[in-house]
Amino acid sequence: MENFRKVRSEEATAGFGTKGGGPGPFADLAPGAVHMRVKEGSKIRNLLSFATASMAQPDTRAIIFSGCGRATTKTVTCAEILKRRLAGLHQVTRLRYQSVREVWQSLPHPGTTPGPTPGQKHSVPGASLSVLKNVPSLAILLSKDALDPRQPGYQSPSPSSDPSYLPMAATSKRSLREPAVAEGSLKGTQPEPRAAEEDLTA
């Protein structure tokens, strides 16, 4: 493929249980859920600002982050950050494959000009190539309402969302440093062996 360049990439349309889509992996999803389609070039800051504002509304009970291919890592990052911002979110993860069609166009040969040659009215377009690929697709559902814990991919609310989690960890680290300070203070009060021997000879 060194003589070709990718022109565009078209993803197959798949519903995720939201308005305007099919059943998808979340068939029993309540209406009004927000669907965030994460792309490879999406900005995490923009995605999270919109997701946080949407989940702050009482009518929004669930949100879905979905991405495929190289965007799967960014999809997981958005879901984990939102779980730390909003406590008590139930999570269900679905993993499947999605068809992506890539269109490639041939590059001009070295030494040739892209314009029309003398005697030609129009330039001959380069050869195009269409490739159909199956890439992993990830969909993460975060819901304010309790979900069925028996379904595959369910995760209960994380304890790290509790505000008292980090202070407890900080106090445990300080408690580990206290014996070291006390041990150093005891070393300063003990007399040195040479000084004790000089007192006995005197």
UniProtKB/TrEMBL annotation:
Domain spans labelled DNA/RNA-binding protein Alba-like: 35-98
Disordered: region residues: 1-25, 106-126, 147-202
Subcellular location: Nucleus
Keywords attached to this entry: Nucleus
Main location: nucleus
One GO term describing the cellular component: ribonuclease MRP complex
Comp. bias (Basic and acidic residues): 1-11
GO BP, sorted A to Z: tRNA 5'-leader removal
Pfam families attached to this UniProt entry: Alba (PF01918)
Superkingdom classification of source: Eukaryota
GO molecular function list: RNA binding
Family: Belongs to the histone-like Alba family.
Record-given protein name: Ribonuclease P and MRP subunit p25
Organism from which the protein derives: Phyllostomus discolor
Lineage, uppermost ranks: Eukaryota, Metazoa, Chordata, Craniata, Vertebrata
The encoding gene: RPP25
